[in-house]
Amino acid sequence: MRPFDAQARAQYTVVAAVTALILYLHLTTVFCVRVAMPRWILLLFNLGPVLVLVNYYLACFTDPGSPSPNYEPPPQTTALLIPIIDSTTDINSPSSSIHLTSSAYLQQQQDPFNESSTADRTTPFCHKCNAFKPPRTHHCSKSKRCILRMDHFCFLAGTCIGYANQAHFVRFLVWTTWACWALVGVYILRLETVFSAMVYGRSDGIPVGDGEVVVIGMNLAILTPVVSMVSMLCWNQLDLLVCNKTTIESINAMPTRAYRYKSGNFDLRENVWDLRSWIRNVEQVMGPKWSLWLVPDMRCVFHHGSLRKRNEDCVWLMEGHWFPISDELRERLEGKLNAK
Ligand SMILES: [Zn+2]
C-alpha cells in the first residue's frame, strides 16, 4: 500500500472533486431536467457515468508500472539483434562479458580514460533512480520514479499514465466524451421544447419544472469547457494510439534516441514503434480483442500490481521492457547489419 503522502492526498482530493462533478451533473439532470426518452436510451444514459467512474478509478489507482529492479540492458554485442531477429532470447542471460550492472555502468561513465565510456553514452540510464531505463521508459519527476512506456503525468487522475494504466485512461476519456455530449444533447432538446412552449404557447410537452432552466444553464456553463477539454484529450490519445506513440515521444521525438541505443550507429529519424498497422498499434495498449477495447478491464483489481500480457504478437521478453518493431523496419535493419 502506498504511504499517505502529499501526492496521495492531492490525488484523493482530485478524485473526490471529479467524482462530485460527475455525480452532480448526472443527478441534477435525472431529477431536474424533464426529458421524455425511450427506455433503452435512458439505460445507456445512466450507464454512461457508471462506465466513466469505473474506468476513472481504474486509471487512477492502477500502478502505471516501473522497470523491474533487476532490469539490465541486453549485452551490447547482441543488443541490435534481440528485437530484430531473436524474439526468444532471454535478455537476462549472462551470455556476454560486457553485460553491465548499473553500478559498473556508473563507474565506467565516471572514468574519463575508459574508452568504452563514450560508446556507452547512448545507453538509457536514469541518474535519479541510478538504474538502466528500458526503451520507452521515462523518469517522472512527480512520481519520483521511472515509468514504463510513460505517456504523461495526468492532473485529472493525480497519477502517471503509463504501460499498465493507459488502457483504463483511454476508456475513461472515450466514455467521458460520450457522456458529456449525451448531456449536451439532452439539454439542447429540452431547451428547444421549453422555448417553443414559451414562444409559440405549445402545451403538448412536459411542463417546465421549478428552476429547470436555471439548472440547464448552470450545467451547460460547467460542461462547455469540460466537453472541449475532454474531447481534445480523447482525440489526442486516440491519434497517439493509432500511431503507436506516447505523448512524451510525440513531443521529444524520443523513439529516435531510444532506438539508437539498440541499433548502434543507425540514425533512425522515424517512429520505430509504428507497426505499420493501426489495429496492431491500438492492440498494444488496448488488448488483442477489439470487442473488449471499451469494456472496463477489472482483472487488475483481482491481480493488483501484476502487469498482464496484452498482445501475443508483441515481443514480451519482459513485460513493458521491450516493444516489437514492424517487419518492414526489421528487414531494413537486417540489410544494414549485413552490409556492415
Ligand atoms: Zn528514474
From TrEMBL:
The DHHC domain is required for palmitoyltransferase activity. Keywords: Acyltransferase, Lipoprotein, Membrane, Palmitate, Transferase, Transmembrane, Transmembrane helix. It holds the Pfam family DHHC. InterPro entries: Palmitoyltrfase_DHHC (IPR001594), PFA4/ZDH16/20/ERF2-like (IPR039859). This is Palmitoyltransferase. It comes from Chytriomyces confervae. It is found in: Membrane. It is a multi-pass membrane protein. It comes from the Eukaryota.
